[in-house]
Amino acid sequence: MVKVGLLGINSRKAAFAYFWFCVFISALSLALCFIHPGFAVGLLFLLSALWYWLCIRWVDRNSRWN
Questions:
Q1: Is 27 within a domain?
Q2: pTM of structure
Q3: In the structure, how many helices (H) and strands (E) does the chain have?
Q4: Residue 6 has what DSSP assignment?
Q5: Which residue among 16, 56, 61, 65 is least enclosed by CB atoms within 10 Å?
Q6: Residue 46 domain flag
Q7: How confident is the model at residue 60 (pLDDT cuts 50, 70, 90)?
């Protein structure tokens, strides 16, 4: 599952960039939710952020970055 989560990502820096992008989109969606409830769908990016964070943590503990 870690290979799928980090597919095409070769560095820790890039993985954290994707993580923070997902967090940013989620926060923006939360703010826009008050304008239109349809923006709540963007909160699903929190699941992606969680997956990136867990994958980064797993690689840090069990493997090495390229």
A1: yes
A2: 0.88
A3: 3, 0
A4: T
A5: 61
A6: yes
A7: very high
